[in-house]
Amino acid sequence: MTATTMYHVTGMTCHHCVNAVTGELARLGGVSSVEVNLVPGGESLVTVASDAPLAEQAVAAALDEAGDYHLAAH
After folding, report:
1. Using an 8 Å Cβ cutoff, are 4 and 49 in contact?
2. Which one of 14, 21, 31, 69 has the fewest CB atoms closer than 10 angstroms to its CB?
3. What CATH class has 3-71?
């Protein structure tokens, strides 16, 4: 079974940001794919497919490792 979760992420402005975020999230255990719909300067939509749901803290830590990116409050 695959879990697909969408996250709203702030701080992304360009394709370098997309590559950084995609790379860090892909390193999380069980992640099979990461897709980013970039909204420069706004809330980008990041879709992550994984073997099981990911802990929000793990996603937030991966975003922090990638750069100054944060989960948007919703």
Report:
1. yes
2. 14
3. alpha beta
Report d(CA 44, CA 7) in Å as an integer: 8
**Domain chopping of the chain, boundaries:** 3-71
pLDDT in tens, 3-13: 999 999 999 99
H or E element that contains 34: strand 31-37
- Residue located via tokens 């497919």: 49
Which of 41, 37, 43, 46 has the alpha carbon at shortest distance from 13? 41
Amino acid (1-letter code) at residue 66: A
pLDDT tens by residue, 52-65:
999 999 999 999 99
